[in-house]
Design goal:
By secondary structure, the chain is α/β, with parallel strands linked by helices. It has 14 helices and five strands. The chain has a five-stranded parallel beta sheet, sandwiched between helices. Helix 7 links the parallel strand 3 and strand 4. The radius of gyration is 25 Å and the shape is elongated. The protein starts with a helix and ends in a 16-residue tail after the last helix. The structure holds adenosine-5'-triphosphate and magnesium ion. Magnesium ion binds next to helix 4. It comes from Roseibium denhamense.
C-alpha cells in the first residue's frame, strides 16, 4: 500500500453525511418555515413585568453611579449596595428565554454597555465553588488549579471589576446542591450578599430558577430585602389562560402559513393545557412541533393527529395515555407518568421523605 493510498479513504468509507440513505430529504422552503416557527417569540404579559423590574434594577445602578460621582463613595448611603432581581417559576415556563429577550432589548449583552451582563447557567449538580469557577471561566479567567471556595469568589469579584461588569445573571440556581442543606444554603446567601455589598465593586444580580430558589431567598431576610421578584406562574384551565393558548396556536399557524379553522379549538386548548401542565414554554414547543409535522406532510392545515404524534414523541407514551388521542379520558391522564406507568406501580419503592428547608436568619 502506498502512503497516498493509506491516507486517502476509499470512497465507500467516506461518511455520506446528509445524503445517507436513511436521512429524510428536506425541502428548503419547509426548513425555512420550521426555523421561522421555532425562533418566533410569543410575547406575554409577564414580559412587561420583567422589563419593568429589570429597568428598576438598572435605575438603582444608575442612582449609585450618579451618587458616587456627585457625592463620593463615602456619602452615598443606602445606594452603595447592589440589588437583585429573582425570577422564579417551574421548569418550562419560559424563564431563561424571556430573560434572554429582555437582556437583548435593554442592550445588556452589548460589550460597551454600562449594564453589560454576564449570564451563567449553574452546572448540574454543582457546588458554590463550581458555580464560582463557571463565572470565572465565562469571564475568560483560566482556572488551572484547584482553588478554595472563598478564593474562587474573591477572584470572581476581582475579575468582574477588571472587566468593568456590574451585572451578573445566575440561572438554574436550584442546581446548587448546597440549597438542600440549611447550613450550606446560608453560605450561598452570604456569597450572593457579598457580591452586592462589595465596598469596592458592588454587583447587581439577576437570579433565576425553580420555586425552591425563592424559599432560599426568603429564608434570609438580608438577601430578601435586597431583592425584587418576578413570578412566572403555570397557566391554569381558566378562561383567560385558555384564550392565551388559543392566541398561541393562531399566532404560530399564521407564522407557518397554516390554516387553523379546521381544528377543534376549545378541545385542543384544554388538552394542550393538560398535556403541558400549564408550562407556557413547553406548550409553545408542542404547538411548534405539531405544526412542523403538518408542514412536513405538506398539508396546509394541522390535524389533531399532529399533536398526538408530537406528544407521543415528547413523552414516549402509549396511545391510551396520549392526551390528544381520540376516545381517551384525557383529564385523567397523569402526564408525568406515561412512559412505563404500570411498571412504576409494580416497582414502586417508598422514597425517603425530603428534608424540609427551615432556616431563620437575621430578623
Ligand atoms: N414566550 C415564548 N415564545 C416562544 N418560545 C418560548 C417562550 N417562552 C419559552 N419558550 C420556549 O420554551 C422552552 C422552555 O423555555 P425556557 O427554557 O425559557 O424555560 P425555563 O423556565 O427556563 O425552564 P427550565 O427551568 O427547565 O430551564 C424553550 O424552548 C423556549 O425557547
Ligand atoms: Mg431555564
Amino acid at each position: 500500500m502506498t502512503s497516498s493510498n493509506y491516507h486517502t479513504p476509499a470512497p465507500e468509507a467516506q461518511s455520506p453525511g446528509p445524503n445517507a440513505p436513511g436521512r429524510r430529504q428536506r425541502s428548503a422552503e419547509i426548513t425555512k418555515l420550521e426555523a421561522e416557527l421555532q425562533h418566533t417569540y410569543f410575547p406575554q404579559k409577564s414580559d412587561e413585568d420583567l422589563l419593568d423590574r429589570l429597568n428598576d434594577l438598572l435605575d438603582t445602578f444608575e442612582n449609585y453611579t450618579d451618587a458616587v460621582e456627585t457625592m463620593g463613595l463615602s456619602h452615598v448611603g443606602r445606594l452603595k449596595e447592589g440589588r437583585a432581581l429573582a425570577i422564579v417559576g417551574a421548569s418550562g415556563v419560559g424563564k431563561s428565554r424571556s430573560l434572554e429577550r429582555a437582556f437583548e432589548s435593554l442592550g445588556m449583552n452589548d460589550r460597551k454597555s454600562p449594564f453589560r451582563i454576564i449570564s451563567i447557567k449553574a452546572p448540574s449538580p454543582c457546588t458554590l465553588k463550581q458555580l464560582g469557577t463557571s463565572v470565572l471561566q465565562a469571564l475568560g479567567y483560566p482556572v488551572r488549579r484547584e482553588l478554595r471556595e472563598n478564593v474562587v469568589w474573591r477572584k470572581v469579584r476581582d475579575q468582574l471589576k477588571l472587566h468593568g461588569i456590574r451585572f451578573l445573571h445566575l440561572d438554574e440556581l436550584q442546581h446548587l446542591t448546597q440549597l438542600e442543606n440549611p447550613s450550606d444554603s446560608i453560605k450561598v446567601c452570604d456569597t450572593l450578599k457579598g457580591l452586592m455589598q462589595d465596598e469596592d465593586w458592588p454587583v447587581w444580580l439577576v437570579l433565576s430558577g425553580m420555586p425552591n430558589l425563592a424559599a432560599v431567598i426568603e429564608s434570609d431576610f438580608q438577601l430578601r430585602r435586597r431583592c425584587t421578584f418576578v413570578r412566572l406562574d403555570l397557566m391554569t384551565p381558566c378562561a383567560n389562560d385558555l384564550q392565551t393558548v388559543q392566541r398561541i396556536i393562531k399566532n404560530y399557524c399564521k407564522k407557518a402559513k397554516l390554516e387553523h379553522q379546521n381544528l377543534p379549538m376549545n378541545e385542543l386548548c384544554s388538552r394542550l393545557m393538560h398535556g403541558a401542565e400549564g408550562r407556557t414554554g413547553y406548550l409553545i414547543e408542542i404547538v411548534q412541533d405539531a405544526l412542523c409535522k403538518a408542514l412536513k406532510a405538506r398539508r396546509n392545515m394541522p390535524l389533531m393527529g399532529d399533536f398526538e404524534l408530537t406528544f407521543e414523541a415528547r413523552t414516549g407514551c402509549r396511545p391510551e395515555h396520549n392526551v390528544f388521542a381520540e376516545d381517551v379520558e384525557w383529564q385523567n391522564i397523569d402526564v408525568r407518568n406515561t412512559l412505563f406507568p404500570e411498571d412504576k406501580e409494580e416497582d414502586e419503592v417508598p422514597q425517603p421523605k425530603k428534608r424540609r428547608l427551615k432556616i431563620v436568619r437575621g430578623a
